[in-house]
Amino acid sequence: MKPLQIQALNAVRFGGKVSLAISSFLLLVKFFAYYLTNSQAILSDALESIVNVAAATLALFIIHISTKPADRDHPYGHGKAEYFSSVFEGALISFAAIMIFVESIDAIIRGRQIMRIDLGLVLIIAAGIANALLGFYLVRLGKRNQSAALVASGRHVLSDFYTSVAVIVGLLLVRITGIQWLDPASALVVGCVLAWTGFHLVRESVHALMDAEDVALITELGKHFTALRRPGIIRIHHTRVIRSGAYHHIDAHVVVPEFWSVATGHTETNAFEAAVMEQYSHAGEIHFHIDPCRRVYCHACDVAQCPLRRETFARVIPFTFEELTSPTEPEELQHSG
């Protein structure tokens, strides 16, 4: 493992420990605030903090698993384990939302009297600020070190901050108006926010697990292909990216001059692969399937000395998203002139 990769791994592990420690402390603060106030809104915030602690604990374990190197049983590595963490966290958030809905509706029907509202406000405001700082820290650290688990935890912590804001607004309205049902009503708002957050997180993670096409990644590859293009790289198509956590496996078909020998094709494409991966934003590897030009790409081939050329060179084929993801095989292409 390279020094930079070890440094990134240590940073991610440290972030996971910080997340667990702070989330556990804030959980105690919020339940203490609920004990003092009997506020349904504060209880909803505390329920989400339980999810935070469970997710932070799981994230530490998942980070340990996902950073293991590839082995005989897992030739593509263990990086996809991070997405299981995100799915589990999203499911926990959704479950918390259901619990909040049930408790809030019960509180509206039966009615509950809030106590010591001022002290409760102070505690929740302090907890909200701490969550905001922790969330931004985790998202930034996760993106910098390409950790899906840490980014998911950070986004969840930020959603906890937003729900704390809703709780604070609800408590302030109760304090100003004296209308008690505004407290469980604000808890229902919290539940709606959590339900959307959980659904969005699960959907993103499932897409990653299913290797759904990522437009941003293919577009980035197109920019690097264009900037580092060399004579003989005539066309690149059927490009696919398998995301294994922070490590990406890229497959693509590359069309090269028909007169190139196997050794030349291997040498040129390997050098091109290495240059692209130096610039690519994620660690990974590229595997090119080499296709001969079959003399249908003369108009797009910029190799000066070609003994098989049928027509003059006009312009290179641009590496657009549509071109890179096209499954068309060279023999099926019909050049219109």
Give the amount of beta strand, in percent. Answer: 5-15%
Helix content: 55-70%
How would you classify the quaternary structure? single chain
Could you describe the largest sheet, including whether it forms a barrel? Answer: 3 strands, mixed
| Element-level helix/strand string | HHHHHHHEEHEH
* Count of runs of 4 or more consecutive helical residues: 9
Q: What would you call the structural class?
A: mainly alpha
Outline the low-pLDDT stretches.
Answer: none
Number of strands: 3
The CA-CA distance between the termini, in Å, is 50 Å
Whole-number radius of gyration?
27 Å
Question: Judging from the principal axes of the Cα atoms, what is the shape?
Answer: elongated
**Largest beta sheet: what is the strand line-up?**
1-2-3
Mean pLDDT: 82
Question: Which terms would index this structure?
Answer:
64% helix, 337 residues, mainly alpha
What can you see in these coordinates?
By secondary structure, this protein is mainly alpha-helical. It has helices at about 5-35, 40-65, 80-110, 115-145, 150-175, 180-210, 215-225, 260-280, 320-325; strands spanning about 235-245, 245-255, 285-290.
